[in-house]
Amino acid sequence: MSVRELVVLGTASQVPTRHRNHNGYLLRWDGEGILFDPGEGTQRQMLRAGVAAHDIDRICVTHFHGDHSLGLAGVIQRINLDQVPHPVTAHYPRSGQRFFNRLRYATAYRETVQLTESPVDRDGVLASSGTYTLEARKLSHPVESYGYRLVEPDGRRMLPERLAAHGIEGPDVGRIQREGTLGGVALEEVSEVRRGQRFAFVMDTRLCDGVYALAEGCDMLVIESTFLDEDEELAVEHGHLTVGQAARVARESGVRHLVLTHFSQRYSEPEEFERQARAAGFEGELSVAHDLLRVPLPKRR
Length: 301
Hints:
Strand content: 25-35%
Oligomer: single chain
Number of helices: 10
Strand order of the largest sheet: 6-5-4-3-2-1-18
């Protein structure tokens, strides 16, 4: 059975707190696992969340600040220690290659797993599989940063009443799906487009075109909201978003489920993030993330 859900491993920005670990997010997409921004302590959070090294097929790092990448060393070594039987691909800004190298070989260990390095240096498609296309868009931060977006190919939804009207039933339903026509009836006559799901991951950035390109039409948007709205000047200065900015992006982009995360340690009232997001006009599903939260992707439209 296919499972599509976000497992939140950590939600703190810059430094961990008593209640928040450094960043870390695993997206389960059918039988594949994509690990985003493994900060310090990610390996332990995986244990607490019931996530195994075997669950990781792809690693996506937005940028090389420590709260988004210090956990790489431990995660990569754990993948090798557990002898994960499948290859793993790592995406990260090409400009941070020296940091990736240092983290990958931070200490001595035995390499047992094929880890493919696939650095990012421009907007565009990074990989395609049968169930999604992975894209990257450049963001605006003091160091080079990219956001990531998964797009499922559109499919078709069969319409029982139209199938019945044409006398198509049983094995013939599968046949028309495979072949596109049956007895002069086109697939388009008995089905409609089923829009593929879309997921975006946006971390440290100011407002920019890349943020909107990633968020457009997403079923789920995971986005940093480091600062409350009253601290917007700090957000701009340090290359971050406020909760109101994140919520307005989601509203204007037609996001169905907004997941706010990456919170400054200066705040202790998560309810205020929800209040300000709603005040900004976002009316869809909303999660103010906490460590070990699991969020299923919304059902297809």
